Amino acid sequence: MTTYYACSTARGPAGVAIIRVSGPDVATVITTMTLKPVPQPRHAVLRYVVDPVSHERLDQALVLYFAAPASFTGEAVVEFHLHGSAAVISAVLSALAKLDGLVAAPPGAFTRQAFDNGKLDLAEVEGLVDLIAAETEAQRKQALHQIGGQFSNQYEIWRHALVHALALLEAEIDFAEGEDDVPAGISGAVGNKVAALASNIRTHLDDRQIGEKIRNGLSIAIVGAPNVGKSSLLNALAKRDVAIVSATPGTTRDVIEVGLNLAGYAVTLIDTAGLRDTDDAIEAEGIKRARARADMADLVVDVITPENATARYTEHSLRVMNKIDEYGLSAGLHDDAIYISVKTGDGLTALIQHLVEWATTRLNINEAPIITRHRHRILLENCAAQLEAAAAHTRDSVLAAESLRLAARALGKITGRVDVEDVLDVIFSSFCIGK
Are strands 256-262 and 265-271 parallel, antiparallel or unpaired? Predict the structure, then answer.
C-alpha cells in the first residue's frame, strides 16, 4: 500500500492550509515530523512541524490524526493545519518528500483509496466530483444526495433483485426438473419479476433528463432579426458587457455563450446572429450556426420589436417584445409576449421572473433518485434492454440467465460493483490534486 501526501486546500495566501497524508506510514510521518508520539485519534493537538533531516522548525500547526479504517480514505490519515503561506506549504511538502515510501498524490488519489477501501462506491465518488464543482444551489443539493448514497441504494436494490432472479434460473439449469429442492415453475416467476424490474427502470429513465440538466445546465438561445436588441438583452441578463452592441446589422456573426446562475440553477445564455437573408458568406454561416444552436436549446427567446411583431421562430418559443420605450408601450405580459425595454430596464424583472419559473418547472424534482450522468443513462438503457430480452426467453433458461448476467453487469458498473477498471482512471483523473 502506498502512502500519499498533498496539499488539500487551494494555493495562494490564506489563513489556513491543510496538508493531508494517507496510508500505512502515517504513524512514522507524525513522529518524524513533530518529534512527538502519535496523538489520540480525532483530537487536535498543537505541535511544531519540523524538517525530518535538520529538525528545523517549519511551522506551528494543528495536527489531526484519524486511525484506520475510521477516516475518509479508510487508511490512517494525518492532517497538518498550517499557516497558509506559499513558503510554509512549500517547506512542509519538501520535507515530506524526504521521507522514504511517501508519494506525492496524483489527482484523486485520496478518493481512490476511499473507493478501494469501500468507503465510497463509484456513484458516490462521482457525486463528490460534482459537489466540488458545484456552482449553484441545485447542483449542490443534487450532488449531496448522490454522495449520501440515495442513488446507489436504489441501484443496489435493483441489482440484488437481479442477482436473486439469476440465482433462481441457475438453480433451474443446474438441477433436473422434478427435484424436491427446486420449486416448480421458476421460469414463469422469474419472468414476471424481470419484466416488472425492466418496467421500473424504464420509468426511471423517463425523467426528461432533469438530473443531467441540473448538473450541466439549461440552455437558452436568444434569436431574432438583426438590431432587435438580442446582444443588449444578453448583456442585461448577464449584468456585464459580454456581446458587442452596434447599430450596424450583422454585428454578431458567431454564437456567444455566457453562464448564468438563475435562482440556483445553472443556465447558459446564447446570443446568435441576426436571422435574415444575406449574400455575405460569413454572416450566412453565422445564421446557420444560430439556427442549429437554437434548435438544440432548452428554450428559445424570440426577440421582436413593434416593427416585426409577426415574426416567430417556433410555436413554443418565448416571445419578448423589445424597444417598447420607443413606441410608448407599457411593460409586462401582453397577448403572447413579454414587453420590455432593454434600454430603460422596464419589464426585465418580469422577464427574469418568467425564466426562473420556467427553469423551476423544467427542473422540478422530488426526493426520488434521478440520473445525473450520461454514463449512468447508457448503462441503465443496456440493463433494461437485457432484462426485456431475458423476459422474452420464456422457453430457454440458459439464454435468459445470460441476459440477466449482462443486465447485472451493466447495473453494477454504475456503483462499481463489477467490471469498472475501464472507467476508473477517467473518473478519478477529474479530481484536483489533494482530493
Answer: antiparallel
